[in-house]
# Entry
Amino acid sequence: MELSDLDKQIVKELQSGLPLVKRPFAVLARRLGISEEELFQRVQALQQAGIMRRIGAALRHHKVGFTANAMIVWQVPEEKIEEVGQMFSQLPEVTHCYQREELPHWPFNFYTMVHGRNRETCEQIAARLSQLAGISNYRLLYSVAELKKSSMKYFMD
Amino acid sequence: MELDHIDRRLLNLVQSEFPICLEPYRVLAERLGISEQEVLDRLEHLMKQDIIRRLGGVFDSRKLGYKGTLCAIKVPPDRIEEVAAVVNSYIGITHNYLRDHEYNMWFTVLAQSPAKVEQILAEIKQATGIEDIINLPSKRFFKVLVNFDVEDNRD
# Structure
Protein backbone atom coordinates (compact mmCIF):
# COMPACT_ATOMS: atom_id res chain seq x y z
CA MET A 1 0.00 0.00 0.00
CA GLU A 2 1.39 3.37 -1.05
CA LEU A 3 1.02 6.00 1.66
CA SER A 4 -0.54 9.27 0.59
CA ASP A 5 0.32 12.59 2.22
CA LEU A 6 -2.98 12.35 4.07
CA ASP A 7 -2.03 8.89 5.36
CA LYS A 8 1.26 10.29 6.67
CA GLN A 9 -0.64 13.10 8.41
CA ILE A 10 -2.92 10.48 9.96
CA VAL A 11 0.09 8.44 11.16
CA LYS A 12 1.50 11.61 12.76
CA GLU A 13 -1.78 12.32 14.55
CA LEU A 14 -2.35 8.76 15.73
CA GLN A 15 1.19 8.32 16.99
CA SER A 16 0.95 11.43 19.13
CA GLY A 17 -2.04 9.93 20.92
CA LEU A 18 -5.73 9.18 20.79
CA PRO A 19 -7.70 11.93 22.57
CA LEU A 20 -9.49 10.92 25.77
CA VAL A 21 -12.95 12.02 24.68
CA LYS A 22 -16.09 10.15 23.68
CA ARG A 23 -15.49 10.56 19.94
CA PRO A 24 -11.68 10.62 19.62
CA PHE A 25 -11.61 10.22 15.83
CA ALA A 26 -13.92 13.21 15.44
CA VAL A 27 -11.33 15.36 17.23
CA LEU A 28 -8.49 14.11 15.02
CA ALA A 29 -10.60 14.50 11.88
CA ARG A 30 -11.31 18.12 12.74
CA ARG A 31 -7.56 18.74 13.12
CA LEU A 32 -6.94 17.14 9.73
CA GLY A 33 -9.80 18.97 8.05
CA ILE A 34 -11.63 15.81 6.99
CA SER A 35 -14.77 14.04 8.15
CA GLU A 36 -14.80 11.55 10.98
CA GLU A 37 -16.05 8.95 8.51
CA GLU A 38 -13.22 9.55 6.02
CA LEU A 39 -10.62 9.40 8.77
CA PHE A 40 -12.03 6.20 10.18
CA GLN A 41 -12.00 4.57 6.73
CA ARG A 42 -8.33 5.48 6.30
CA VAL A 43 -7.53 4.15 9.79
CA GLN A 44 -9.19 0.85 8.93
CA ALA A 45 -7.29 0.68 5.64
CA LEU A 46 -3.99 1.28 7.48
CA GLN A 47 -4.86 -1.50 9.87
CA GLN A 48 -5.91 -3.94 7.16
CA ALA A 49 -2.64 -3.32 5.31
CA GLY A 50 -0.76 -4.12 8.54
CA ILE A 51 0.79 -0.65 8.56
CA MET A 52 -0.94 0.12 11.83
CA ARG A 53 -0.63 -2.91 14.09
CA ARG A 54 -3.13 -1.68 16.60
CA ILE A 55 -4.11 1.21 18.77
CA GLY A 56 -2.85 0.57 22.22
CA ALA A 57 -1.26 1.78 25.40
CA ALA A 58 2.46 1.63 26.09
CA LEU A 59 3.23 1.27 29.79
CA ARG A 60 6.19 2.24 31.91
CA HIS A 61 7.30 -1.26 32.87
CA HIS A 62 9.11 -0.19 36.02
CA LYS A 63 5.90 1.19 37.40
CA VAL A 64 4.07 -2.11 37.08
CA GLY A 65 6.72 -4.30 38.63
CA PHE A 66 8.84 -5.58 35.73
CA THR A 67 12.16 -4.39 37.02
CA ALA A 68 14.84 -6.51 35.36
CA ASN A 69 15.24 -6.76 31.65
CA ALA A 70 17.95 -8.84 30.10
CA MET A 71 19.05 -8.88 26.53
CA ILE A 72 20.31 -12.37 25.80
CA VAL A 73 22.71 -12.53 22.86
CA TRP A 74 23.20 -15.92 21.24
CA GLN A 75 25.53 -17.48 18.75
CA VAL A 76 23.24 -19.65 16.65
CA PRO A 77 24.51 -21.63 13.64
CA GLU A 78 22.91 -20.37 10.43
CA GLU A 79 21.16 -23.69 9.77
CA LYS A 80 19.43 -23.55 13.16
CA ILE A 81 18.21 -19.94 12.95
CA GLU A 82 14.75 -20.81 11.64
CA GLU A 83 14.13 -23.53 14.22
CA VAL A 84 15.42 -21.48 17.15
CA GLY A 85 13.52 -18.38 16.00
CA GLN A 86 10.24 -20.24 15.81
CA MET A 87 10.86 -21.95 19.14
CA PHE A 88 11.84 -18.83 21.10
CA SER A 89 9.17 -16.57 19.64
CA GLN A 90 6.44 -18.89 20.90
CA LEU A 91 7.53 -18.48 24.51
CA PRO A 92 5.67 -15.82 26.48
CA GLU A 93 8.80 -14.82 28.44
CA VAL A 94 10.50 -13.74 25.21
CA THR A 95 9.25 -10.31 24.21
CA HIS A 96 11.63 -9.56 21.32
CA CYS A 97 13.38 -12.00 19.04
CA TYR A 98 15.66 -11.03 16.15
CA GLN A 99 18.39 -12.41 13.95
CA ARG A 100 21.02 -9.72 13.43
CA GLU A 101 24.19 -9.36 11.42
CA GLU A 102 27.33 -10.48 13.22
CA LEU A 103 30.71 -8.74 13.26
CA PRO A 104 34.22 -10.25 13.29
CA HIS A 105 34.74 -9.22 16.93
CA TRP A 106 31.10 -9.70 17.90
CA PRO A 107 29.98 -13.23 16.97
CA PHE A 108 26.46 -13.02 18.40
CA ASN A 109 23.80 -13.18 15.70
CA PHE A 110 20.60 -13.83 17.61
CA TYR A 111 18.90 -11.58 20.16
CA THR A 112 16.11 -12.14 22.64
CA MET A 113 14.74 -9.78 25.23
CA VAL A 114 13.33 -11.19 28.42
CA HIS A 115 11.66 -9.37 31.29
CA GLY A 116 11.53 -10.73 34.80
CA ARG A 117 10.86 -9.45 38.26
CA ASN A 118 14.53 -9.96 39.17
CA ARG A 119 17.84 -11.23 37.79
CA GLU A 120 17.38 -14.79 39.05
CA THR A 121 14.18 -15.09 37.02
CA CYS A 122 16.00 -13.87 33.91
CA GLU A 123 18.83 -16.35 34.50
CA GLN A 124 16.38 -19.22 34.87
CA ILE A 125 14.65 -18.23 31.64
CA ALA A 126 17.99 -18.04 29.80
CA ALA A 127 19.05 -21.47 31.07
CA ARG A 128 15.75 -22.95 29.97
CA LEU A 129 16.00 -21.38 26.49
CA SER A 130 19.57 -22.63 26.17
CA GLN A 131 18.52 -26.14 27.04
CA LEU A 132 15.48 -26.08 24.75
CA ALA A 133 17.47 -24.87 21.75
CA GLY A 134 20.71 -26.72 22.46
CA ILE A 135 22.64 -23.45 22.15
CA SER A 136 25.28 -22.96 24.83
CA ASN A 137 27.10 -19.83 23.72
CA TYR A 138 25.10 -16.94 25.10
CA ARG A 139 25.47 -13.90 27.34
CA LEU A 140 23.00 -11.99 29.46
CA LEU A 141 23.32 -8.25 29.31
CA TYR A 142 21.26 -6.73 32.09
CA SER A 143 19.87 -3.26 31.89
CA VAL A 144 21.47 -1.10 34.55
CA ALA A 145 19.65 2.10 33.66
CA GLU A 146 17.05 3.21 31.16
CA LEU A 147 18.52 6.25 29.44
CA LYS A 148 15.72 6.72 26.95
CA LYS A 149 12.48 5.03 26.14
CA SER A 150 10.11 6.75 23.78
CA SER A 151 7.72 5.87 21.03
CA MET A 152 8.93 6.41 17.50
CA LYS A 153 7.73 9.58 15.81
CA TYR A 154 7.52 8.85 12.10
CA PHE A 155 7.73 11.42 9.32
CA MET A 156 9.08 14.08 11.66
CA ASP A 157 12.49 14.61 10.05
CA MET B 1 0.25 4.48 43.23
CA GLU B 2 -1.94 1.54 44.18
CA LEU B 3 -3.77 0.01 41.20
CA ASP B 4 -7.11 -1.60 41.90
CA HIS B 5 -8.40 -4.60 39.98
CA ILE B 6 -10.38 -2.44 37.55
CA ASP B 7 -7.23 -0.45 36.72
CA ARG B 8 -5.41 -3.70 36.07
CA ARG B 9 -8.09 -5.10 33.80
CA LEU B 10 -8.29 -1.77 32.01
CA LEU B 11 -4.50 -1.71 31.50
CA ASN B 12 -4.57 -5.20 30.02
CA LEU B 13 -7.44 -4.29 27.70
CA VAL B 14 -5.93 -1.05 26.43
CA GLN B 15 -2.60 -2.73 25.74
CA SER B 16 -3.80 -5.52 23.52
CA GLU B 17 -7.51 -5.33 22.84
CA PHE B 18 -8.21 -1.68 22.30
CA PRO B 19 -11.38 -1.55 20.17
CA ILE B 20 -10.99 0.31 16.92
CA CYS B 21 -14.37 1.95 16.54
CA LEU B 22 -15.85 5.42 16.74
CA GLU B 23 -16.60 5.19 20.47
CA PRO B 24 -13.85 2.97 21.85
CA TYR B 25 -14.13 4.13 25.46
CA ARG B 26 -17.83 3.21 25.55
CA VAL B 27 -16.96 -0.32 24.36
CA LEU B 28 -14.27 -0.59 27.05
CA ALA B 29 -16.80 0.62 29.63
CA GLU B 30 -19.26 -2.11 28.63
CA ARG B 31 -16.58 -4.76 28.91
CA LEU B 32 -15.57 -3.57 32.37
CA GLY B 33 -19.08 -2.91 33.63
CA ILE B 34 -18.34 0.70 34.51
CA SER B 35 -19.41 4.00 32.97
CA GLU B 36 -17.72 5.55 29.95
CA GLN B 37 -16.84 8.59 32.06
CA GLU B 38 -15.12 6.36 34.61
CA VAL B 39 -13.03 4.76 31.84
CA LEU B 40 -11.97 8.22 30.65
CA ASP B 41 -11.20 9.37 34.21
CA ARG B 42 -9.17 6.27 35.02
CA LEU B 43 -7.17 6.50 31.78
CA GLU B 44 -6.46 10.15 32.38
CA HIS B 45 -5.26 9.36 35.88
CA LEU B 46 -3.04 6.46 34.68
CA MET B 47 -1.48 8.83 32.14
CA LYS B 48 -0.93 11.58 34.69
CA GLN B 49 0.81 9.02 36.91
CA ASP B 50 2.92 8.06 33.89
CA ILE B 51 1.89 4.42 34.22
CA ILE B 52 0.57 4.73 30.68
CA ARG B 53 3.34 6.36 28.67
CA ARG B 54 1.26 6.75 25.52
CA LEU B 55 -2.06 5.64 24.10
CA GLY B 56 -2.06 5.81 20.34
CA GLY B 57 -1.35 4.08 17.04
CA VAL B 58 1.33 1.40 16.94
CA PHE B 59 2.89 1.11 13.51
CA ASP B 60 5.01 -1.39 11.62
CA SER B 61 8.17 0.59 10.98
CA ARG B 62 9.21 -1.63 8.06
CA LYS B 63 5.92 -1.04 6.30
CA LEU B 64 6.37 2.69 6.77
CA GLY B 65 9.70 2.34 4.96
CA TYR B 66 11.99 2.58 8.00
CA LYS B 67 15.09 0.47 8.63
CA GLY B 68 15.92 -0.62 12.15
CA THR B 69 19.18 -1.48 13.81
CA LEU B 70 20.66 -2.06 17.24
CA CYS B 71 23.91 -0.34 18.14
CA ALA B 72 26.29 -0.44 21.08
CA ILE B 73 29.01 1.97 22.07
CA LYS B 74 31.82 1.71 24.63
CA VAL B 75 31.48 4.73 26.86
CA PRO B 76 33.93 5.58 29.66
CA PRO B 77 31.96 5.50 32.96
CA ASP B 78 32.56 9.18 33.66
CA ARG B 79 31.11 10.21 30.29
CA ILE B 80 27.76 8.35 30.37
CA GLU B 81 25.58 11.38 30.87
CA GLU B 82 27.29 13.48 28.25
CA VAL B 83 27.27 10.72 25.60
CA ALA B 84 23.65 9.79 26.41
CA ALA B 85 22.64 13.40 25.77
CA VAL B 86 24.14 13.20 22.27
CA VAL B 87 22.64 9.78 21.48
CA ASN B 88 19.21 10.60 22.89
CA SER B 89 18.91 13.78 20.86
CA TYR B 90 17.85 11.80 17.78
CA ILE B 91 14.11 11.17 17.22
CA GLY B 92 14.95 7.82 15.55
CA ILE B 93 16.80 6.62 18.64
CA THR B 94 13.86 5.53 20.75
CA HIS B 95 15.45 3.12 23.23
CA ASN B 96 18.74 3.53 25.02
CA TYR B 97 19.88 1.30 27.87
CA LEU B 98 22.97 1.08 29.99
CA ARG B 99 23.99 -2.57 30.28
CA ASP B 100 26.62 -4.34 32.35
CA HIS B 101 29.10 -5.11 29.57
CA GLU B 102 32.16 -3.39 28.08
CA TYR B 103 29.82 -2.30 25.32
CA ASN B 104 27.76 -0.52 27.89
CA MET B 105 25.38 1.74 25.99
CA TRP B 106 22.85 -0.02 23.74
CA PHE B 107 20.45 1.91 21.57
CA THR B 108 18.06 1.27 18.69
CA VAL B 109 18.05 3.40 15.56
CA LEU B 110 15.14 3.76 13.14
CA ALA B 111 15.70 5.76 9.97
CA GLN B 112 14.36 5.91 6.46
CA SER B 113 17.48 4.28 4.93
CA PRO B 114 20.69 2.46 5.97
CA ALA B 115 22.59 5.52 4.73
CA LYS B 116 20.67 7.69 7.17
CA VAL B 117 21.59 5.26 10.00
CA GLU B 118 25.27 5.52 8.98
CA GLN B 119 25.00 9.29 8.98
CA ILE B 120 23.59 9.32 12.53
CA LEU B 121 26.39 7.00 13.74
CA ALA B 122 29.02 9.16 12.04
CA GLU B 123 27.61 12.22 13.77
CA ILE B 124 27.67 10.46 17.15
CA LYS B 125 31.29 9.41 16.61
CA GLN B 126 32.23 12.93 15.69
CA ALA B 127 30.37 14.56 18.57
CA THR B 128 31.75 12.17 21.20
CA GLY B 129 35.14 11.22 19.77
CA ILE B 130 34.29 7.57 20.47
CA GLU B 131 35.00 5.34 17.49
CA ASP B 132 34.01 1.99 18.92
CA ILE B 133 30.37 1.56 17.92
CA ILE B 134 28.96 -1.74 16.73
CA ASN B 135 26.03 -1.66 14.33
CA LEU B 136 23.88 -4.80 14.23
CA PRO B 137 21.14 -4.41 11.60
CA SER B 138 18.30 -6.89 11.89
CA LYS B 139 18.34 -9.65 9.29
CA ARG B 140 15.21 -11.40 10.33
CA PHE B 141 12.50 -10.48 12.72
CA PHE B 142 10.68 -13.18 14.67
CA LYS B 143 8.78 -11.41 17.40
CA VAL B 144 8.05 -8.12 19.10
CA LEU B 145 5.64 -8.14 21.96
CA VAL B 146 5.32 -5.20 24.23
CA ASN B 147 2.33 -6.07 26.35
CA PHE B 148 2.64 -6.97 29.98
CA ASP B 149 0.09 -8.78 32.01
CA VAL B 150 -0.43 -6.46 34.95
CA GLU B 151 -3.08 -8.49 36.73
CA ASP B 152 -2.01 -10.75 39.60
CA ASN B 153 1.16 -8.77 39.99
CA ARG B 154 1.29 -7.54 43.52
CA ASP B 155 4.75 -8.52 44.73
Summary: Residues 114-128 of chain B form the longest helix (15 residues). The domain at 5-49 of chain B is CATH 1.10.10 (Arc Repressor Mutant, subunit A).
